[in-house]
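Your task:
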Amino acid sequence: MLIKVEEKHKSILKILFIFIVSLILILQFRKLFHDFDLEIFYGYREKLTILTLSYITILGIFAYLPLSLYDFVIKETCEIKLDNKKLYKSSWIASSISSIIGFGGTAAIALKSYLYSPYIKDKTTLVKEVSKVVLLNFTGFSTLCLLYSIFYSRDINFYNPVNIGILMAGLYTPILLIYNLIKLKENREKNYFKTIKIMSLSILEWTTMAFLLFSILRVLGAEITLTKVFPIYVVSTAIGIVSMMPGGLGGFDLSFIIGLTNLGINKEEVLLALLLYRISYYIVPLTVGIFLIINEVKIKVNKGYIEAIAFCFKKAGSRINLIIKGIISKKERQN
């Protein structure tokens, strides 16, 4: 009973925290965009051609690819009885939906448990492995924090809680990597090697995400270098994670816009870049995921129809066979 009450209080506090954060973000956005110029925004938008939009879409899909590859690592451990093509379809569907929903990886665990449970023996192992992937996914961001701590140490304010959080987050990957390398050297167990593979995918995922946003800014004509964008991206991501919003929505965007406008980039241009980033990395993969779901349902429905028709023909054939046998036996008796 006490546990249920504590869980209830936690849920209420979480909802209250998200509500307060959302309210602060709305007020800050209103303050930031009080002088927003729609004509400038439309001017940047008109620069976009079919070619540039196609280029951004392709970049978004490439940036998303590492996110849909984690399940190949857990396939062997969980003994998922699916071929690679079907596994990739299911992985894409689950990852594209969970990246939009968020909930700290809970959605990914729930979706993958649902999709793979018919093809595994032990559901507990699956939940354990998917949870492990969710936890190890943080290593990619940790690596970015580590790079920030090394190359931008002069800019770090040790009285700023965000900077302290980044410094601490940067220690996660090297500690985990050293531990797993030592264990791998001692035991040669496959589990440690799999952990390193998941960490590598996470680093690739977070790196491609950062590169995607930078590439979109460059496509729009922003005269800025990667070395200038990188620290703003890391700090904005940290704020987005703390805000507990799916994909850091709101907190990340606000911090990123403020950071780049301080460097002389128009807020209208940054907002358009963020919209294109969200569409190419979240909406496009989700659209592909929905298409895959519809296709899968269609295949199952068609398979059901074929099975039903085959069953009807089988029954009809049996009836016809019985009728023919009856006619033959009747004629034989008459003779």
